């Protein structure tokens, strides 16, 4: 599943916005949905609202959570164009409900043979059954790293979250009962809840449980082999050939049953190395309940206790492992603030890591980070801005005249960080007020020093003071200067 276009009218701060999410003319994939999208904009311009809208449309307001309902005003219009296999369709709001406003099967054209709404549901359902998961949502706050591991690896949910989850369970039961009684709205009723993974309220620990179960089972079976060898060694009449046979069986078992932690560790180590960390391989069953299935060490081999993990380390691991485990191939993946708690040099590589874990999926990243933006081509950036009166939001286009590859003004991947801030994020000033004041003062000093040079007074007491002040301002501004202050 991929999204091609979003149109909004009178929807919160969006008065009339149409967002094209396809590759531009001149690109080898022209007209196809973008594989990754970077949503940037001032606070309050609706970046998170866009993510929530996509989540609402994909779920068809069904099966996520009651609090996720994103009602469109009566005078508002919201529509999203989707592509699923050979199907292209548009969902639009009709009051609180969603309906098809167009539905096309590639190769069959429009008009004659256009399927009925009931057929649309049936055809679409047959296609989306092949996609699991259909959507994954990573909100800004998806879990607390300090309360992540319970006795079984689950989240310790707060009373509020327990109430939300209880409502969700009841809603799923209601939907399932409705599906048994009526075939109406087949897509809405039949959509498998496991296809919608929303970590805004779901237990991310459930995915870790799968990893933990595989590793536990491996360690238990390995321990059983070792115990059998130990029992033979304790026997007085144990023959050398018998011992060797048991050891060979253990090695053969290991060769045919790779440790489930090994492959995961190899992948994570490539990323953790930038943090001076690596995954501990030789973990024991007795430490899993306390430290979890992913235990970390420094490069030198010193254990890093779970409570000592940095927020940035948690941010990375809590999102990467679910993607690694689920291996989504055709999902829409929403990530709000991927840069959270990550150092700038790490931000510059995290996008490629996400995309490599879910090839074929479509990513939407909402961010304020120039390092994140530098990972995108200009047509992959959706910039939201307030109008001069801050009453509505529009999309600032990155190209001139027509949406063609050679008409784009800026290419973030080739810009310096400060250029990205000023050209892509529209930061008007090149520093805070102290920097501006220092630049003005330095400019005045340069004029004064030049006058003193002409009158041969540069070596006077006044001239020396001005030179020292000039050198000090240059130092504060991060500039290199000669001994004469120039």
Give me some keywords for this one.
41% helix; 486 residues; seven-stranded mixed beta sheet; alpha/beta; five-stranded antiparallel beta sheet
What does this structure look like?
The strands form three sheets. The protein has a seven-stranded mixed sheet, with helices on one face. A five-stranded antiparallel sheet has the order 2-1-4-5-6, covered by helices on one side. A three-stranded antiparallel sheet has the order 9-10-11. A hairpin with a 6-residue loop joins strand 14 and strand 15. Residues 62-68, 143-158 and 182-192 have low confidence and may be disordered. With 486 residues, it is an alpha/beta fold. It is flat. It has helices spanning 47-59, 117-128, 159-181, 186-190, 205-234, 240-256, 260-272, 285-291, 311-326, 344-357, 370-373, 417-424, 433-454, 461-476, and strands at residues 2-11, 14-20, 36-41, 77-84, 87-94, 97-105, 135-138, 196-198, 277-279, 296-298, 303-304, 332-336, 362-366, 381-386, 393-396.
Strand order within the widest sheet? 8-7-12-13-3-14-15
Distance between the termini: 60 Å
Roughly what fraction of the amino acids lie in strands?
A: 15-25%
Work out the helicity level: 40-55%
Biggest sheet statistics: 7 strands, mixed
Structural class: alpha/beta
Rg, nearest Å: 29 Å
Would you tell me the overall average pLDDT?
A: 79
Query: Order of SSEs, N→C?
Result: EEEHEEEHEHHEHHHEHEEHEHEHEEHHH
* Unreliable residue runs: 62-68, 143-158, 182-192
Principal-axis shape equals flat
Separate helix tally = 14
**In total, how many beta strands?**
15
